[in-house]
Design brief:
The chain is of the alpha/beta class. It has a single domain (3-194), classed as Spore Coat Polysaccharide Biosynthesis Protein SpsA, Chain A. It is built from 7 helices and 9 strands; from the N terminus they run βββαββαβαββααβαα. It has helices at 33-44, 75-85, 103-110, 139-147, 153-159, 167-170, 185-194; strands at residues 7-11, 27-28, 31-32, 48-51, 64-66, 90-95, 119-123, 126-135, 163-165. A hairpin with a 2-residue loop joins strand 7 (119-123) and strand 8 (126-135). Helix 2 packs antiparallel against helix 4 (139-147). It is globular.
Length: 195
């Protein structure tokens, strides 16, 4: 199986409380963060889902939109919805707020997807649980964690004995900005000024 044969889900269900408004509509280099994330997703594979709790969207009709099944339970609930609605054995996930991610990062992670367990990226900042690829068989453990009120992706990855891969250490031509994420308006202003 090739990376292009899996599914990919953009996780965009957060409330953006630290940002102060919906991150999805925030613009970077003249494009909404959401549109940038969808472009990255489509570059990974054509089977793209958007996991969001926002109401109405106008997107490429090829992008399927799903809401969280477990409301107000964070990004792990978004991964649950992605795996439940995925029609493939593996599903890559990516956050809506990392505009410098590339398909190269996911190609790197994909080489570790051999043991039916999730693979998550690790950057210089630590584990990046939303830059990851999940097997369908992780769904039961994710749902159990959510039902028990354990919302942390880190803990769920540990229970699933996830593979942790470090692209900043191992990848050639690694881009130091790959894992820059936008949590607050000041983060966006900073990368805008650098660009």
């Amino acid at each position: 199986m090739h990376l292009s044969e899996i599914s990919v889900a953009v996780i965009a269900g957060g409330k953006s409380q630290r940002f102060g408004s919906s991150k999805l509509f925030a613009e970077f280099n003249g494009k909404r963060l959401l549109d940038i994330a969808l472009e990255i997703a489509i570059s990974i594979c054509p089977n793209v889902m958007l996991i969001t709790n926002e109401d109405a969207w106008e997107f490429d009709p090829n992008v399927q939109i799903f809401a969280d099944n477990f409301t107000d339970m964070g990004p792990l609930a978004g991964i649950q919805s992605a795996l439940q609605n995925s029609k493939t054995e593996w599903t890559a996930v990516l956050p809506v707020d990392m505009p410098f991610l590339t398909v190269d990062i996911y190609n790197y992670l994909w080489q570790f997807c051999t043991n039916e367990r999730p693979v998550a990226a690790e950057s210089a900042k630590g584990l990046e649980p939303l830059v990851s690829i999940w097997p369908k068989n992780a769904l039961d453990q994710i749902e159990l964690s959510l039902k028990q009120g354990e919302l942390g992706i880190f803990r769920c990855l540990k229970k699933l004995n996830a593979e942790i891969a470090n692209p900043c250490r191992d990848m050639q031509n690694y881009n130091e900005q790959s894992f820059v994420n936008i949590n607050k308006q000041i983060d966006l202003n900073k990368i805008q000024s650098q660009g």
